[in-house]
Amino acid sequence: MSISQRRRSLAAVATATATALAVVVAGAPAASATAKPTIEVSGGLTQPVFSYQDAIREHVRVQSPVDSDGDGKKDLVRVDIIRPKESSSGLKVPVIMHQSPYFDEPGVGFGRDHKKYGADGNLTKFPLFYDNYFVPRGYAFVSVDMIGTRLSDGCPTSGGPSDVLGGKAVVDWLNGRATAYDAKGDPVKATWTTGRTGMIGHSYEGSLAIGVAGTGVRGLETIVPLAGPSSWYEMWRANGTLTDFKGGQEWLAEWVDADPDEKCAAVHQRMTAASDDDTGNYNAYWHERNYRTGPVSNVRNVRASVFPVVGMHDRNVMADQFSQWWAGLPRGVQRKVWVTQYGHLDPFWARRDVWVNTLHQWFDHELMGVPNDIMRQPRADVQLGPDRWITQADWPAPAARTVTLRPQQDGSLGRTPSTGTGSYLETRQTETAMAEDPGTTNPNRLAYLTPPLKNATRLSGTPSVSLRVKLDKPTANLGVMLVDYGQDTRIHGVDPSLRQGLKLIDGEDCVGESTADDDGCYQRAADNTVTAGFQVVSRGIMDAQNHKSLSHPTPLTPGKPYRITWSMLPQDYEFKAGHRLGLVLTGTNADLTNAEAGTGTKVTVDLAGTSISLPLVTGTSSGK
């Protein structure tokens, strides 16, 4: 389906919602007891007119096209369903789908929510609030156990094809293109749905939504990926360096699967061998798990609308996972985004009322065809600091202009090229050790600062760094940091141990309707802040021998100069007036990797050939 066809399809849904489903608008006469069940819309939003207590709860097992555990049988995917009882008497409803590997371990929603089953095998407790809130408004909610987890067959493959194709099979079944079996083993069809499906999920779950969307499957109308990876190579690697421990892919597959390890041992061994932790290179294994350009899922095939949320200080799923996928989306794909200063976070915990209302509008528009104003609102919500949000027309900010800064011999950072050199020893250091006291000499780094800023200046987009260096060994881990120097109170999103920039507080919110087993109530949270004299804003690391190719390393000739250029992590961050921008050149970043040691290489930097390019907006009181 082309983008124009999709828009015509959405318009048709809006018409059908208003006519065939006889949408009731506030103020219209009440329907008779024998009238066909209807969706009710008021103020551009669907209303909670269906009983959550009386909703139909059932489960099916969808036939997937894969045999991930090699037992000679196609894997069956467990799907738990809750839908308005009226959907069995003529009401056709769209679907909100949550596919997750986490229902065994660690649970969802800060690891607090797990599935609970009744005597009939159906769920009495659906994790998270989506069912409580949306089923009374005329949606079905389906909770999908990813292949290899909970009650689905097979083995998890840490972002591999079976993870994605299992979810695609469920969308296919909802649209009449795949087979499913009920609790008795009889084939069953999803006759109660319009087929229009939206996927939502956090972290691995968000990656599954991105992956399924990249197959181009028809019927998946929108996705809401929250901190979801778009390339699994970049979960464990950064430009040839290992950013996490060796064996991570196998560890993750074992962690989310509660079955005995022996069941999938052969699959895990193949994963570990193919991922090639010894070199950190990109290869066919990682390409298969690349949802931007890969053979199973490709961003160019996305036809669904997208509403991602990204934490710019996320150390787990780093922000370039979002920015590169976002930039690669086909031009006609409808989209919205929240860009935050948090870490690896679901916004339900951060800005709850606004998030639930915005998500409601989004699903109503994209799945119900309700003519609200969600697409006329600014595309991007951007968090600048504690309780400080702006909106802007797009992300990055359209007003951003590239400014190139260059290190100077006197330790300053300015616009004009300098002469001379600097050198440091490439060792493993923490970001605090590398960034603090920039005016003092440190043998493990070089630091350069701008004069105090006259006006507030915002970085919006992806910085890049270009170094001209000589090494005395064949490679080094080249590190770079952009630092905000100035006393301030900021979101503490950089410390994952502190709930990704939040703290839990007294009180709770009950979102939607409740039953005795499923109350939809969650503790409140607030911004967790830190007051300090500096903040690392963006960072980057590069194994120098991978500067030409991530797949084919080229060791450097000691003593020979090389120009090495790469992108740092994206950001949307405000430098306040009076603060100073700092460029820190260093080695192995201990905050980014626990798998790499410093090489001990001496790095000599030619200042005339070294620069950092920043997409900047001056004057940031409003979004542009």
Helix content: 10-25%
Assign the structural class, choosing from mainly alpha, mainly beta, alpha/beta, alpha+beta, or little secondary structure. Answer: alpha+beta
Individual helix count: 11
What is the 3D shape? globular
Q: List the domain count as a whole number.
A: 2
Overview of the molecule:
With 624 residues, this protein is an alpha+beta fold. The protein has 2 domains: 47-353, Alpha/Beta hydrolase fold, catalytic domain (Rossmann fold); 401-492 and 528-618, Galactose-binding domain-like (Jelly Rolls, Sandwich). Helix content is 17%, strand content 32%. The protein is built from 11 helices and 37 strands. The strands form 9 sheets. It has a 9-stranded mixed β-sheet with strand order 11-10-4-5-9-6-12-13-16. Strands 21, 22, 23, 26, 27, 32, 33, 36 and 37 form a 9-stranded antiparallel β-sheet that branches. A 4-stranded mixed β-sheet has the order 17-18-19-20, with no helix packed on it. Strand 7 and strand 8 (123-125) form a beta hairpin. Helix 3 (161-174) crosses helix 4. The longest helix is centred in the middle third of the chain and has 17 residues, at 352-368. The two termini are 33 Å apart. Residues 1-33 have low confidence and may be disordered.
Keywords, separated by commas or semicolons:
624 residues; alpha+beta; Jelly Rolls; nine-stranded mixed β-sheet; nine-stranded antiparallel β-sheet; disordered N terminus
Give the gist of this structure.
This protein has 624 residues and is of the alpha+beta class.
Layout of secondary structure:
Elements: H1 3-18, E1 24-25, E2 40-42, E3 45-46, E4 56-63, E5 76-83, E6 93-100, E7 116-117, E8 123-125, H2 130-134, E9 140-145, H3 161-174, E10 180-181, E11 187-188, E12 193-202, H4 204-213, E13 220-226, H5 233-236, E14 237-238, E15 241-242, H6 248-255, H7 265-275, H8 284-288, E16 305-306, E17 309-311, H9 320-328, E18 337-340, H10 352-368, E19 380-385, E20 388-392, E21 401-407, E22 413-414, E23 421-425, E24 428-429, H11 431-435, E25 446-449, E26 457-461, E27 464-471, E28 477-491, E29 502-510, E30 521-527, E31 529-543, E32 562-567, E33 571-575, E34 580-586, E35 588-589, E36 602-606, E37 611-618
Helix pairs in contact: 1-10, 3-4, 6-7
